[in-house]
Amino acid sequence: MKAMILAAGRGERMRPLSDCVPKPLLPVAGRPLIVHLIERLARSGFSELVVNVSHLADHIMGALGDGSRHGVRIVYSHEEQALETGGGIAYALPLLGDEPFVALNSDIYCDFDLARLAAARAALARGALAAHLVLVDNPPHHSAGDFSLAGGRVSADGMPRLTFSGIGAYSPALFAGVERGAKCQLVALLRPAMAQGRVAGELHRGMWMDIGTPQRLTELERQLAAPR
Fold first, then answer.
1. Does residue 133 contact residue 201 with C-beta atoms inside 8 Å?
2. pLDDT, position 228
3. How confident is the model at residue 225 (pLDDT cuts 50, 70, 90)?
4. Report field, pTM of the whole predicted structure over 0.85
């Protein structure tokens, strides 16, 4: 299974830190956020990575190179302007291939066992599922949540509400209708698939943080520095 790291966003909420340094390269515990993700992917058996880039793309490509120093192979999907999550994944499909793949936001820190997503591969490959999402309990800054989870299926409606972690496994077919180079939100593709019962999910109750602001970056640094 290939994995894609979504790193093309501007990081508006992280300004001014992201004005000169792309958000995925902001350091925490001595390493850039995106390197923590790459190392976790490598430990989970993912060696073929696609990273999409746009804002300060040269900084990211220069810092990560071909990925060999981290035990992976990285290829880049360069967007002239950020295409949002659904559009960015659709644009990268020629690099991702015809098999199911994993995609992760670059601005999260999480101890979820990414190797678990390989279990969804068979259902995704035969078309029984369009996606498998990892959900978490709602953080204070997103108390309304995104979706609900019941019987292993994710729904756009229902209670209790949970938050999408930014980690998922997908069938390429989910993105087939997106014109290459067009902007598209991921949720616009997921909702119809949810209505058909074709989006599975699981709840992760371990560590997870959305590092969307300087304050949350500072809080993550504090947590990682605390004695365990």
1. yes
2. 62
3. confident
4. yes
- Report helix angle 57-64 to 33-43, nearest 10: 50
CB atoms within 10 A of CB 173: 13
Phi/psi at 220 (nearest 5 deg)? -65, -45
Please tell us whether the domain made up of 2-225 is placed in CATH 3.90.550.10: yes
Side by side, which strands form the sheet with 101-105?
Answer: 73-78, 48-53, 2-6, 101-105, 163-170, 131-136, 199-204, 153-155, 148-150
Q: What confidence tens digit (pLDDT) does each residue in 55-102 have?
A: 899 999 999 999 999 999 999 999 999 999 999 999 999 999 999 999
Q: Give the Cα separation of 35 and 190 in Å (integer).
A: 28
Q: How many residues does the chain have?
A: 228
Judge contact between 17 and 56, C-beta under 8 A. Answer: no
HEC per residue, the chain:
CEEEEECCCCCHHHCCHHHHCCHHHCEECCEEHHHHHHHHHHHCCCCEEEEEECCCHHHHHHHHCCCHHHCCEEEEEECCCCCHHHHHHHHCHHHHCCCCEEEEECCEEECCCHHHHHHHHHHHHCCCCCEEEEEECCCHHHCCCCEEEECCEEECCCCCCEEEEEEEEECHHHHCCCCCCCCCCHHHHHHHHHHCCCEEEEEECCCEEECCCHHHHHHHHHHHHCCC
206 contact partners, CB below 8 Å, separation of at least 6? 110, 111, 112
